[in-house]
Amino acid sequence: MSTSLRLEMITPATIDAALGLRVHPHQERNVAPVSRSLAEAYAFGEAAWPRLIFDGDELVGFLMAFLDLPWNEEKDPSDRRSGLWRLNIAATGQGRGYGRFAVEAVRDELRRRGERQLYVTWEPGADGPGAFYERLGFRTTGESSGGQVVGVLDV
After folding, report:
1. How far, in Å, CA of 70 to CA of 81, rounded?
2. Across residues 8-33, what is the average pLDDT?
3. Nearest to 120 by CA among 32, 108, 107, 9
4. What are the tens digits of pLDDT across the range 122-137?
5. What are 71-120's pLDDT values in tens digits?
6. Do 109 and 49 meet the contact criterion of CB atoms below 8 Å apart?
7. Distance between CA atoms of 80 and 153, rounded to whole angstroms?
8. pLDDT category, 26, cuts 50, 70, 90?
């Protein structure tokens, strides 16, 4: 993994590059495009934490965390969670440690904010990202959210 990895906020100077980011074609069904994530970030305001992932000057990915969102208000209004909402790694950046960097960056941000757990959801199935998250230490909770598997990692 490169030592020049960093997160940056999306700015007018980087928005076009962010919108042009494409995952590998076989992953497109597993993750929403950056444009949808940015619309959700706008709608959710301070609860969304979108960031671009750079390796030097090269844009290699996008992540968005969710911060202190109600998980299932009807079932338990006090259940609020934070975690990784979206992770898009450029098709050309697969297998280089960028996804691991992204998860660790979100973990560090949540730890800084006093959170104890990092949640993530993923599409089930052999071609989904479940094995990736499990290699990073996520364990399934037995819950589902919108048909996706829910995983949690202690931070």
Report:
1. 6
2. 94
3. 107
4. 989 888 899 999 999 9
5. 988 889 899 999 999 999 999 998 899 999 999 999 999 999 999 999 99
6. yes
7. 15
8. confident
d(CA 24, CA 90) in angstroms, rounded, equals 7
Joined tokens for residue 109: 């941000």
3-state secondary structure string across 39-104: HHHHHHHHHEEEEEEEECCEEEEEEEEEEEEEEECCCEEEEEEEEEEEEEECHHHCCCCHHHHHHH
Among 129, 140, 107, residue whose Cα is nearest residue 149: 140
The first and second tokens of residue 71, run together, are: 């998980």
Global pTM value: 0.93
CA distance 9 to 29: 26
Query: Which of 67, 39, 63 shows the shortest CA–CA distance to 52?
Result: 63
